[in-house]
Amino acid sequence: MARSKPPNTLIVVKRRGYEDEEEHTGAWKIAYADFVTSMMTFFLVMWLINITTKEQREGISEYFNPVAVSQANSGADGALAGRSVDKTGALTSPNASGTRSLPVASPPVVASVGKDDRNPAGRKDPTPNPDSAGQPATLPQVTRAEFEALLDRQSASVQEQMAFNQLEQDIRKQIAAAGDLKALSESIVIQQVPEGLRIQLTDQAKFSMFTVGSAQMTDQTRRLMRLVAGVIATVPNSLSISGHTDALAYSKDSRYGNWELSSDRANAARRELIASGVPIQRVVRVEGRADLDHMVENRLDPRNRRISITLLRHDTNGSPAATRSVQ
What we know:
- With 327 residues, the chain is α+β, with helices and mostly antiparallel strands.
- It folds into 2 domains: 29-121, no CATH class; 148-317, CATH 3.30.1330.60.
- 32% of the residues lie in helices and 10% in strands.
- The protein contains 6 helices and 5 strands; from the N terminus they run αααββαβαββα.
- It has helices at 27-51, 54-63, 144-177, 219-232, 258-275, 314-317, and strands at residues 188-193, 196-202, 239-244, 283-288, 306-312.
- It has a 5-stranded mixed β-sheet.
- Helix 3 packs antiparallel against helix 4 (219-232).
- The longest helix has 34 residues, at 144-177.
- It is elongated, with a radius of gyration of 43 Å.
């Protein structure tokens, strides 16, 4: 029997698709980060070289030298005092001599800008004094008399401050007790300033201390001035009196202006204080300031028209400090 011919065999080869894994991994990020770090380091080194002097660069080099000697001698201050016997400088920095220690400079901080050699900010080169070489710095000696005088000044300053506080309270109590003057409490401004205690009597929208354009006090102003004089007469501090006006000017043809008006009003306040019992020798300054010093920003505000009475501090005018007892 004839052998039959085998059928044609079909072979199918299936291939699995592989993706290129190398293109989708994060390995390139590491390389890029290393590159950026290297560039940053390079520019940092270039910046340091640009802003530092030769001495500072040598200090940086010695700071990062693992075999550089320390800033202080090791061991006790004996025969060698921590220095090497070898003249070539063995076991020390290669720049060091065998008979001396090499100080190590600290890394510089931001240097000041200028044409001259620059030191690290905050560091100053001490100027050696040949007469005090090796000698410890001495503090200035204070004698017992100087120390006691300092204590006396501090005690007088405290007493003066307490007296000023009491004066302010007394003035406000006196105004509150006077029924017809209670409405004028807003016309008195009391402040403690570096010069002393400043008492200002100001105009209000419905109250004027003087008649318009003159130095003639009104009856209420005179009573208010006497009330203030009765309180400040109890302390020995010197007085400074100044007059102030608003910015409303006189006509150009007038020979009388705000300077004359403020000076006349300040002098009128001086006469009223003296007549109310304040010793004349306590007044050390009377001046007119016209409209130079404004109490409020609006130059035409009536509060800018005022009389300022300042009780000067002891260290300002040399007079005895206020020693008024506080109860």
